[in-house]
């Protein structure tokens, strides 16, 4: 093995390590948010009442489920689509009519979509050099409090 191969392998291992560490920190912070807000942390399982995976979602993680201001709310990080065309987002689902949701008023980038008795809020896919990641924890806490 050449020095270049070793450096390449070490760089790849470092990237995997950083991604693993970021995932662990994010999960710990989401659990803390759940505890502070009275929500339940469900890891990677959506509640049955939400139905089948909507919006082309292929996997979920960091699922929070709870009630706030009399509305059932489920927030989760997810992957939408498959392969190279997939993208990651944080989705907030509220069991309420679309007309009663005002979250888009404080963030005009948020898409609001009604599917059955649930209203889904998420940022749409954007063409960008650096892909946008799931919603930062402080921003998610603000959304949950505003709904």
Give an overview in words:
The structure is a single chain. With 147 residues, this protein is an alpha+beta fold. It has one domain (3-146). The chain has helices spanning 3-37, 137-146; strands at 40-43, 57-68, 71-80, 87-94, 111-115, 118-122. The protein has a 6-stranded antiparallel β-sheet with strand order 1-2-3-4-6-5, covered by helices on one side.
Number of DSSP E strands: 6
Output the helix-strand order: HEEEEEEH
Give the neighbour order of strands across the main sheet.
1-2-3-4-6-5
Total domain modules: 1
Spatial shape: elongated
What can be said about this structure in brief?
This protein is of the alpha+beta class.
